[in-house]
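Entry 12.
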Amino acid sequence: MEHVLDNPIYHALTSGHRHLAKGVDEVKYYTEDITAFAGLKDNSQENLNTLYQITPAESLFVFFAKTPVEIPAQWKLLTHIEMFQFIFRGKDIPAIDAPAITDLDLAHVAEMTDLVELTKPGPFLSKTIELSNYTGIFKEGKLAAMAGHRFFPSPYREVSAVCTHPDHLGKGYAFKILQEQIKRILLRDEIPFLHVRNDNEGAIKLYQKLGFKIRTEMIAYVIKKEA
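Predicted 3D structure (tokens):
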């Protein structure tokens, strides 16, 4: 039997993020200014063709798969990324002893976008913040680190956009801000999970230290609809 997290984007768009979804029954995608992810009930040629037919010209999407997928010819495959999917297996809610953590809102989007552009944790668009619970650490009035939520295939909540400004690496900010994210998710009786490139050894060690365990391997496909 398929686990919800075997297809996290589709299950997010049919449960916790239903209000952010566009598409048809078996092919869903996020509103364009939220994020560029699509979720298919199954990664069949038929569903990829449907995604092509129902979306605007030159659309770009990211979708996840547990096993390799053949991309139909009308799509341009830009890249694929091999990842690990982690799920939180810690037993306790973290006790936070950290620098002041700030809730981020629309007033911070420009700084958040700059940090994402610098560190490349993943796509961040004008309304990505609506995925909720973005938090940051500021130093000398500038955003030094941040993280937030992404997919919500209830009751699982993904931690995402984890990044630290290069000037502040090695100070433990990512660890502290992730502890805060974990705490907030657990206090809502939800289960934290996340994705990371399988060659990002530093991040993998950090997540394992926090209590995350590898659940499965995943592949992210980045595809574009040709003009």
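Annotation: The domain at 4-85+220-225 is CATH 3.40.630.30 (Aminopeptidase). The radius of gyration is 17 Å.
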